[in-house]
Amino acid sequence: FVDRAMRRSAASAGKAAAAAAAAATGLAVYHDEETRQSVTIGTVGPVCRLFVRGANHLHVHDGHHLERSLARPAGTGLLSVCNHIATIDDPHLLAAVVPARLLLRGAAEMRWAVCGHDVCFREGSMLKKWAEASKALPIVRGAGIWQKELDTIIAKLQQGDWVHYFPEGKIRQDGRIHPFRRGVGRLVASVEEPQRLQVLPFYHVGLDRVQPTTPGSTSILSRPQLGTHIHVIFGEPVDLSHLLQLRGEPPFDQQPTLLYEVIAHTLEEEVRALRTELHRRLGGELGAVPPEGGDFG
Q1: Where are the beta strands (DSSP E) in the chain?
Q2: Nearest in space to 118 (alpha carbons), one of 156, 172, 177, 170
Q3: Cβ partners under 8 Å of residue 124, min gap 6
């Protein structure tokens, strides 16, 4: 009975999300971008939140770190980073972990998402319209760290916005933390004053079971496995000032990509440490920590 009820709830949530998204993107003809984004986030966000919290079991650990970062001084950017394990990591999970009031106050305080151009921004697709209306920015996978799309993301951070970024670059459901790509290092190093950027790491598990994918998947969505326990653990903002001081020092002054790699690896280890801490707190509930050995592939 509970399973049927949860599936009905999820189905209703899915229909509501689709209707809200269609309505919000339909406003494109009549309203400016800010209005369109506020309507989309204010309607789709709560539905995504309901799916994660109502049809599953969400457990947030050390959420005060997120709340403090959301209350950062004006003009200070926020870059959140985490592992990427399901198509619904964003917007569903992020809508579920922020204070509900944030979704209802419009788009200004919510994150900018980053999505592969080949997935979310195919020309003429409905998904492209929805992505633009939900504060998503494109990135071209394989185009390198000097692509103009990263320049756009950097500009958002420099003006004090919140950007959520998946440094692994793609979905992984093997439980491992795969190498963080150096693009995240460029994002951090491009904000001149360290105090003008907070970098917030977190680790999560469970959505890979809610929304499993397979190598042969032809859709970005699959039939959800409801009633799953989802755990999210936040860390303190990472102090990278000691690394950023090296920007003008050899060899980083001539080869900044080396510094980007160091920053990326540092953040990777922060997320890996959060995974270890979550396993420690939950004992055997999550099983053994997976062996390392992830790659860029």
Answers
A1: 57-61, 77-82, 113-116, 136-139, 162-165, 197-205, 229-234
A2: 170
A3: none
The pairing of strands 57-61 and 77-82 is unpaired
What is the residue whose two structure tokens read 């699959």?
222
SS3 content of the chain, % helix, strand, coil (to 5): 50, 15, 35
CB count, 10 Å around CB of 39? 20
Contact by Cβ (8 Å): 122, 68:
no
Of 28-32, 47-51, 184-188, 203-207, least confident by mean pLDDT is: 28-32
Give the residues across from 82 on adjacent strands.
202
Asked whether the CA dihedral 274, 280, 284, 285 is positive or negative, the reply is negative
* CB-CB contact of 167 with 268 (8 Å): yes
d(CA 244, CA 256): 11
Beta-carbon neighbour count of residue 3 at 10 Å? Answer: 9
Q: Exposed e or buried b for every residue in 183-220, given b needs 16+ CB within 10 A?
A: bbbbbbbbbeebeebbbbbbbbbbbbbbbebeeeeeee
- Is the bond into 99 cis (omega within 30 degrees of 0)? no
Can the peptide bond before residue 251 be classed as cis, meaning omega within 30 degrees of 0?
yes
Query: Nearest CA to 297 among 215, 178, 184?
Result: 178
What whole-number distance in Å separates Cα of residue 55 and Cα of residue 152? Answer: 36
Residue found under tokens 């499993």: 212
CB 24 within 8 A of CB 133: yes
- 1 — pLDDT class (breaks 50, 70, 90): very low
Whole-model pTM: value is: 0.89
pLDDT at 219 over 80: no
